[in-house]
Each structure stands twice: as C-alpha cells, then as structure tokens.
C-alpha cells in the first residue's frame, strides 16, 4: 500500500476524458502529461502523486487507458494544475487498429495543447528504456516539448542498483530521470518538485530541461 501524498495536495478530481481531440476541454491551468508503455505502472504513479485511492483506475490488464484522461489537482501554495493520462503504448491487449487510432489523438495533443508544460515519460527501472521510449523522447525533442523521465518500480531492485539504474536511463535518453516507487512513495517529493518547476515556466518556453 502506498503512503499518503504530501500535504501540498488540497484536492484532486477527474476532469474529463477525450477519445477525440475536439473533446479536450479548454483550460488555462498548466498541464502535465504522463506517457509510458502499458505495463510500467503509470496509473499507480498518478494515484500515488495525488494521494487519492480510486481516482485513477488501476487495472490488472495493461493497456486499458483508451483515451486521454484529465485530472484537476489543487496544490497548496502553487494553485491548480491538470494531469493528463495518455494511452499506453507497446504491450496492450487491444486490436492493432485501435492502437493506431490513438496515434493521431496523442500527436495532436502533444503538438498543439497550449497549456502543456512537460511530458513525463515513464520507464520500468528494471528494464531500462525500450525502443518505444526512445522514439517518444526523440519525438518530444523534435517538437520542442520538455520531457522528464521517471524510472518506476525501483523497489524491485537491490538498493545498490537503484542509483546506477536511474543514471543509466537518464544517460540513455539524454533527459533528467527520477527514481520512484508507488509501494512506499520513495522519490515522490523530488518528482513533485520537478513537476511544479515545469509548471512555473512560461507556456512559450517549450525547450527541454538540462540533461542528466
């Protein structure tokens, strides 16, 4: 069971789900998107960040997120922001046609969403970056979107392997990486600090943060 989220979270609630770009609600709050392969613990990460059990559906079957789901989060001292849960890529028990249908939606969102401040790319710390992850980071770089990388499931690694694993992921992708586990919440505060720093930057400043 994960530990409670930091007290900086005042309120979190589901905002909207969009299967098409025209269903995305207009908003003026800074937005952070979360992307990753379908079995890396994206839903667990989001739920741990907001500290609201059941807010983000966690399924035993990877690949169940089939639209962009938006969550409104009220952060003490910094104000409201939006978290966007993007459809997982890679392993997913849905048809190839359905997976292809997500592509235009996600690409249009990433390229045109005016309030988007950064994209969190989630990687399993035990496996390291896979080709899909590398392609996503390169794509974000090409459209000048800021990327952060989170290495999840660090609780599954021996303690002496956690730091080298996170450093190797950062070096491989050329992006700052943060270790995290939803089991204990380790790494959550450092990640929140990075996320809030990204939200504080101008919407016009789309460039990436310094690489690790």
Largest sheet: 7 strands, mixed
Trace the largest sheet across and list its strands: 1-3-4-2-5-6-7
What structural category do the secondary elements indicate? alpha/beta
Q: Roughly how many Å is the radius of gyration? A: 16 Å
Fraction of helical residues = 25-40%
Overall mean pLDDT stands at 85
Q: Which stretches are low in confidence, meaning pLDDT under 50 for 5 or more residues running?
A: 1-5, 58-64, 91-99
* Beta-strand content estimate: 15-25%
Instruction: Spell out the helices and strands N to C.
Output: EEHEEHEHEHEH
Considering the protein shown, what is the CATH homologous superfamily? Answer: P-loop containing nucleotide triphosphate hydrolases
Instruction: Count helical runs.
Output: 5
CATH class: Alpha Beta
Determine the N-to-C terminus distance: 31 Å
Shape: globular
Number of strands: 7
According to CATH, the fold-level topology is Rossmann fold
CATH-level-2 architecture: 3-Layer(aba) Sandwich
Whole-number tally of structural domains = 1
């Amino acid at each position: 069971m994960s530990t409670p989220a930091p007290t900086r979270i005042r309120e979190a609630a589901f905002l909207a789900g969009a299967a098409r770009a025209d269903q995305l609600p207009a908003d003026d709050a800074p937005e952070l998107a979360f992307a990753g392969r379908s079995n890396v613990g994206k839903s667990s990460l989001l739920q741990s960040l907001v500290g609201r059990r059941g807010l983000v559906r966690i399924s035993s079957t990877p690949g169940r997120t089939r639209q962009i789901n938006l969550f409104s989060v009220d952060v003490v001292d910094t104000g409201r922001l939006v978290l966007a849960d993007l459809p997982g890529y890679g392993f997913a028990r849905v048809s190839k046609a359905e997976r292809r249908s997500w592509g235009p939606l996600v690409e249009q969102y990433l390229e045109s969403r005016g309030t988007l401040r950064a994209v969190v790319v989630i990687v399993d710390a035990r496996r390291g970056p896979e080709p899909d992850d590398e392609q996503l980071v390169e794509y974000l770089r090409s459209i000048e979107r800021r990327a952060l990388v989170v290495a999840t499931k660090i609780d599954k690694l021996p303690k002496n392997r956690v730091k080298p694993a996170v450093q190797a992921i950062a070096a491989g992708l050329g992006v700052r990486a943060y270790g995290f586990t939803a089991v204990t919440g380790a790494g959550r505060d450092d990640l929140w600090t990075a996320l809030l720093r990204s939200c504080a930057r101008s919407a016009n400043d789309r460039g990436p943060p310094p690489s690790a």
